[in-house]
Amino acid sequence: MKTTRLPGITLAGFTLGAMAALLPAATALGAEVPAGVELAARQDIVRNNGSEPASLDPHRVESDVEFNIISDFFDGLVSLDNHGAVAPRLAAGWDNPRPRVWIFHLRPGITWSNGQPITAGDLVYSWRRLIDPATASPYESYLVSMRVLNAAEIAAGQKPADSLGVRALDDATLQIDLTQPVSAFLSMLAHPSLVAINPRAVAQFGDKWTQPQNFVGSGAFTLAQWVVNEKVVGVRNSRYWDNQHTVINRITYLPIASETADINRYKAGEIDITASVPQTLFRSLQTDLGAQVHISPKLAVYYYEFNTQKPPFNDPRVRLALNLGLDKTIIAEKVLGQGQRPAYLFSPDNTGGFALTPPVYAGWTQQQRVAEARTLLAQAGFTPARPLKFSLLYNTSESHQRIAIAASSMWKKNLGVEATLNSQEWKSMLDTLHGPNFDVVRYAWIADYNEPSTFLNNYVTNDSNNTAKYSNADYDRAVNNAAAASTKEDRARYYQQAEDILTRESPAIPVYQYVSVKLVKPYIGGFHESPLGYVYARDLYVVKH
Prior knowledge:
There is one protein chain. The chain has 17 helices and 18 strands. By secondary structure, it is of the alpha+beta class. A 6-stranded mixed sheet has the order 12-16-11-15-13-14. The protein has a 4-stranded mixed sheet with strand order 1-10-9-8, covered by helices on one side. It has a 4-stranded antiparallel sheet with strand order 4-5-7-6.
């Protein structure tokens, strides 16, 4: 989020031998226990995950709630190590013989948790399932954004899923064909939606393949127990290709939405890693617990999203007025106050090394922004006698509630707007978000990779993550031109064009740039949270205490 970067890596022209030299297996991945550290006899960890996962099917989910678990239970071709560099996982190495062709060589002897071999054909199946409109994956458009051959046509229903530009040359070799070179391709490849899933398990058990008795995975852990609204339990996968570098034997994920309950159970010794730290307790916990309070940069933006197809939010003047009516500095520094920063662009500062210019109103005083907002609302037909009224939806959480109360108070005081607060449990809110009936909803986007496009793709017409239902041909053109650009300078110019359109039209209101704050027990070794928000259980260990 702040200064941490995840570099996109272009490796055109290297042979497999050269790649092996550049990317030694499992560099900075897996638990690294320092010499002299005595491990606890019981290698079990409990972490709060914040909500009940909507699913454990990588193609049915869209948030860190699910991806936190999926990233422990599955491997993809590559991963991002603790320094943000691309590192091999299921793939031992790769070639880029032509700008639009990538060939990946799978590790010898890799198997699923049930002992079946993992093949290139399994990955072909998985990617076809992801892009198939029948799957209705929230990440269906991801392969379109990666410019995989025929992905756009498949997503549009114009070609069958088996025409996707990914094929198995043999059991251990996968070829991916693109429509154009993509600078961030390898970084994008690390996303959890692109892990392999077992086609035989899906064929045998259908939608029930993610139940513990049917589950088959490829990661360092496999599913042992899932008690809805109580816990998900993963146990060490002895067949994992890098099992020798795993130390933890059991990882339990709790779905505790209440931050207060999270902290209380941490203090009681029932939780080793919290999901977050509430703002109201932040300073006192820093004083009392010191180094147990971990603050990590996070490449993510918190925002309020409009249903742009529903009046009056189909009027950009109304959306921009509500954007200008929020004092984001107060929200970031006073309501939160853990290092968050006000957001005026849709991609966080310096994402991918791009220094994009914020809108002119970012430099105004709040009084100037409020004056302009009042003018825009009046032009849209809203006056003190006819105030704007709408429902503001957020998922159940004390922090989201506090921010929503602050936002609604600002809108009321500054603009005479009446926002009714409405909370839903996580899964229910996701259902509402994907439907036609919401007005304004709290959401956030954590980067899938380190480029502005991971944030900007969400507002491309018909993108599967475009829950705002926004459409602008000039915007689509700018994002597409950025993807096709051959130089960083050209990409920056097109990204700026796209951001400028969003800041004028405000399909959503970027509120603040994230940091991640967690409590971590002092006996948990190997803890590191990546800028994308992941804490991998394979990296952790429990010190004798």
